[in-house]
Structures are given as structure tokens and as C-alpha cells.
Amino acid sequence: MRTFRSSASRLLLAGAAPFALLAGSAMAQTAPAAQDAPNVAADENQADIVVVGTAGAGTRRQDAAFAVTSLSSDAIARAAPNSTADLLRTIPGVSAESSGGQNGANIFVRGYPSGGDAQFVTFQLGGVPFFPPSTLSFLENSQLIRLDETVDRVEAVRGGTGSLFSNGQPGLTVNVQQREGGQTLKGFAKLSYTDYDEIRGDAWISGPISEDTTFMVGGYYAQGNGIRDPQFRAEKGGQITANIRHDFDGRGSLLIYGRYLNDHGQWLLPIPVNQDGSKISQYANFDHGTGALAGRDVRVTTNNAGRTVDLADGRGAKLGNLGLSFDYELVDGLSIRERASYMWGTANTIGLVPTDAPMSAAAMATTLGGAGSTVGSLTYASGGGAAAAGTQVMRAGIWDVRKRIDAFVNDMALEFKTGGNTLTGGFYLANYTTRDNWALGNDVLLTAEPNARRLNLTLGDGRIATRDGFTSGASFLVNGRYEGRDIAFYAVDELQITDKLRVDGGVRWQRHEVVGDVATSGAAFDQDGSAATLYDRTVQLGGASRIDYNASRWSWTAGANYDFTSQIGVFARYSRGNSFPQFDNLREGLTIISKVDTYEGGLKVSTPMLNLYATLFHNKFDGLATTQIINGVPNESVGGAKATGVELEGVIRPFAGFSIAAAGTYLDGTYRGFFSGNGTIDNTGNRVQRQPKWMWRVTPSYELTVGDFRPSIFATLQYTGDRFSDPENAQLLPNYYQLDAGVSVDVNQRLKLAVTGNNLTDELGLTEGNPRIIGSQGAGTILARPILGRSFRFSAAYSF
């Protein structure tokens, strides 16, 4: 296998500061009272610097000519996200489905067509892509990073300049900025507990090492069964982060950091629900918000290949990460910036994946044995007792996906300033690998109930349909080794023409190379050769194939920003971005390069009483290539889409202590020249899957002082419009509302108590249908994935 040698440099993604911003965080500004208004403007000037979407040291949100949201640590706490991906619900233009648990999110951006996961979303730590491929099968970026109290803020840029910097992501780039130490010793500890018995501890400490050197170290540990309780410890793990910063007499600084994550949780998948048109209701006693198909009886199984699988291993990551950030002014007007990161570890997925909706045992006998087959006996695999004749049953696959990954990223830039002109040139290098071992399928026969039990079925003619509950062996296998390398050069020039007018433009050239050896499923066969046993039908690996791919593309952008006053401005931008095929596409022979043209313009208003950011955008997307595994066979979807939309974000502070933050998106996204089902289904004109036309959220909050206490009350009402789970628009996901709320009390300067509630009305809202079929599931009982049910988190925090 050909290997790539990494060169030594890397250019930062932070800011040569082009461009003035569009969607600054309304959420980040819910706390300040009107009486503190003068300080709000000061904070805007000093602390509200974004790094994402810029070429060097960062820029103020109000001075960025692209759509960006910045969420402070307080805003993150108030949002009370159930996962890293869940926080992205607060960002206009982004549709994030966190119903899959801590891991395995589906995230969609601005009408970009996608089959799932987070194909056009990149996560960064300190301005460096954490894992350069935004999505591989069973691995999206949010799986590799956790939010805890060591996070200072989260920034997210949509479209705009993203196609120039970092890994050239034209969709959504999310940057997680770490908390750092200062010249005062500080510390923080928080203990939280949920009504579903999760306990979690967070802590950090920071301070000086010397006059020029500071440190921070912290992290979290948590464990519990999860909201959907599978009767075993499904959620467990933690993270530790540490950094040291040294300043060079005002000319620059060096930040060195390390991070270790070892955390996993249950991979939550569709469950049975009832659907009658747009009306959704609970199936039998399967609670829509807390019910889990997994249970003690199915936790540990040994499949037909002899491999023992434990569902408690779930989906997550065990990773180490080392990185640095170096900034230095070489001479007046000339600075160098270097960002580097190395990450290594595993990101495995073990899950119970439903195959079909509940049915009678008699119907299952026909499904497994063919027309005319009847039930001879139906017994529990554990204990052997007979199951009732009216038992509803279903199948689910025990999917086992193992990934060993690593990535080295280096981004280096030189910035030259003279007069009103800032010129930045950079070099980006990423080298990354994955070792994949998959075994999909391995269906088991279960009772169609929460915490299901395995069943054994013998047909009326004596044929044995199951072994220890298993109705089949593997249906799709992968054994692959992949290595990718990206090399890019970029240049950005920003010119301040007048005090009010600033223009910028930039280009990026990127070369993408992939080599690999991969074997996938070969012929199906009967393990024992006997027609009397139906459970041992399986597939075997075929011969290995070689991947050797390379391609290069140019990306570019041009924008202008005009400030009417220091508080009101407008911007306009055009950008062209590209997304290269990654390992899984190339495994299936899909070499199409996605091309995205984005036109956008925005208004931004930033005053002590009001912040408002509005963006109008239009995308033209060509070249989506993705696969959907149906009955063990990959089905290709290829084509394009177009989208027009409006994003709004803002906060108003009408009087002291009270604020109302709001964000909303209107999106008209449709397919064009888009074919699914291996080219047999033309979806042109259909709505882009899983992305609603309307999304909005409103967050009022009120903070007051009562004696020595400072209580704060906040709530969020969110609306998600109707969507379709599939590109064929045959699986409707009806609209729903979600209400969250919380109360926090500063008992004194050191102690804070808080309680937050999610989905207080216990709404049944669907985020996914059945992605493993093509077409409608019909009326009645279907498979779908609802949002998580009502839950509460209680916490006590102490700081010094």
C-alpha cells in the first residue's frame, strides 16, 4: 500500500479577518441586563472574537462578512444540549437530529442534499480540523468531541469563507475554543444528576505558572443508563483536557494542548410507532420518549460467525489528541501562524438496528420461510418457555463496526499588513487513515416490546428458523484499510477602501489523494448446507480491490462589507466550494466531486438594546454521491439540488434583566437531476430530505436580584416543520414543537444551583423514518426515531 509522508507545516484557519458578520449569537447575549448595556458594547469589541472562517488571528462578529454564530459557555449551559450535535439546533440554517443519542447524529446544512450523518459538517478544536473527513460511514465529527466546562465558546460558520480555510468545508464549520488560564488562580467544580439516573462531574482549574506562562486542566466523567433505559449501563466515560500558554513579550504566543476522550453511549435507532397520515401516536406500551428496544436478554450475543458482541459497548470514541497553536510577529506588519494537531484512537459502533416493523408471529413465519409457512413453535431463547400465540415480533440486526483512526493536520500562514491592506497566504496539509472492520446484518428475532427478548421459531414443516434468536448471519461485510492526504494552498486579501467599505477575496487550490485496499461482501451461502436450517444464511468477504484516487480543484470567494455606522452594517458574498469523495464513496466506485455555489447577503445590527442578524442565501449544489445499504446491498444516490433561504437571529433587551432571543430559518430546498435507487428513481422537484421549510426558536429569559440571591429563569420554544425522511418524499415526518426551560440561582459569588428540563410537554416528534428501505412504510405501525422524552437535570456548581 502506498503511504504518504506528512510534511511539517500547517496553516491556521483563524483570521486574516476579512468580512463582517452576519449571524452572531443571539443565545450568547441572553444574559446581559439592559442596565449593563454599556458593557455589552465593550464586550463586543474585546471578547467577542471569532476564529472560525477567518485566515489568521480572528475578527469581531460584527466585522465578519459571512454567517457565523458564536455561543459562549453560559449560552451553552442554558441550551442544555443532550449531545454535541444537539447544540447545533441553536444555529440558523442547520437541522440537527440528536435523537440518536450522544453519538450518531444527522446534521444538515442550508439545503445541501445528504443521505445522513453529517456529510458537510466539520468540527475543529482551536481552529484545527479534528478529523478532516467530515463524515465516513458510522463516523461523523461530533462523535469525536464532547462539550464540557473546559469549553470557552463554540463558533459556527455557514457557507461564506469556509471553502477557503481549514479542510475547505463549504457547508458548516464548527470551532470549539478551549478555556485557558490567566494570571489569577481559578477553579470550578460541578455535580449534576438527572431524573433518569445519570450522574456527572465536571471540573477545571487554571492559573499562572510564571509571569508569561499559564495553564488550564479539566474535564468530566459521567455514567448512567440513558433516557432510553436498556437495563444496563449504556452511557459511560469522560474526557480530560489540558493546555499551557506562553506569551513572548507581546509579540506572540505558543499554546500547547492535550486531550483524552474515552466515552460511549447507546446508539439510539428507530422504534415502533403508529402513523395515520400526519398523526403520530405511541405503539402499544412502547413509550415514545423513553422506550428502548435493547434489554438485558439481547445485550450479549454470539453471532453465527462466533463473535461475541456486547451492546453496552455502544457508539463512541477512545481518542488521544495533541496540538499546538503558535503566533508570532516576525517584524512589524509580518506575522506567522502555525496550527498543528495529531489525533489517534478508535471510534466503534455497536448497535441494535431494527429490520422490520412489528408483525404477528404467523406473518414472520411467512417472511422467513416463504408463502404457506406456519408457526410450529415459538419459544424464548433464554429459558425456553413458550411465547403466547398472539405475541407481536420483529427483527433487528446486531451491527458491529470497528474503526481505528488517526489524523495529522498542519496549517501554517503568513500575514502581511500595510496600510489598509491585509494579505494572508497559507499552506494546509492533512494526512489521515482508518482501518475498518464491519459486520452488518446478524438479525435476531425479538418480542416487539421495550427491552425485547430473543425468540426461537420453528416452522410448521419442521424447518428451524433461528439459532439462539438469530435468523441470519452477516448481510454486509467490509474489511478495509484507507489512507487519505489533502494538500492545499490558499491566499486571501482584504482591503479597507474607506472607513465604511471593506472588500476581500481569496482562492484555494486543493489536491485530494486516497489509497486503500478493501474487501466487501462476496457470494451468499448456507453455512451448514442444510435446507432444514434457515438461520445460517450469510455472506462472506469477496476479493480485495485497490483504491488509488487523486484529484484537485480550485475554490474561491469574494465579499464586501459596508458599515453605515459602527452598529449597523451589510455584506454580500459569492463563494465556490468543493467536497471530495471520501473512503466509503470510493469503495463503491463513486468518484464524483461535489460543487457548491453560494450567493449570500446580510444585515447586522448591534446595539445595547438590540442585536439582529439576517441573511439571505441561495445555493446551487451539484455532485452528491452517497449510498444506502438496503437488505445488505449498497444503493447509490447521485445528483444535485438548489436551495434559497433566509436566516434570522437576534436578541432584544426591552428592560433591565429581561431579554428575548430568537432564531429562525426559512428554506426552500429541492432536488434537481437527483436519482436514487441506483439511478432508477428521479427525485427532481422533491424536497431535500430531512430539512424543513420552517424552523424557529424563541428564548425569553429574566434575571433579577432577590436579597443576596440572583435567580434567572429561561425557556425555549422550538418549532420544526414537516419534512420527509427520504429523497423520494414517501416517508413524512410531521411538524412538532419542543419546550425546554430552566432556573438557575447564584446563591453567592461562588455557589450556583440550577435545574433544566428538556421536552417538558413530552412531545412525540419524529426525526427519522426507516432509512433502510426505499418508499413508504404505509399506514399503521412503522419504524421511526422520535426525539428524546421529558427529562430534568439538577446541578450544583462551585467556583473560586
Automatic annotation (TrEMBL):
The keyword ATP-binding does not apply. The lineage of its organism: Bacteria, Pseudomonadati, Pseudomonadota, Alphaproteobacteria, Sphingomonadales. It comes from Sphingobium limneticum. One of its GO terms (cellular component) is cell outer membrane. Its main location: membrane. Residues 267-760 form the TonB-dependent receptor-like beta-barrel domain. Keywords: Cell outer membrane, Ion transport, Iron, Iron transport, Membrane, Receptor, Signal, TonB box, Transmembrane, Transmembrane beta strand, Transport. GO terms for molecular function: siderophore uptake transmembrane transporter activity. Belongs to the TonB-dependent receptor family. It is found in: Cell outer membrane. This is TonB-dependent receptor.
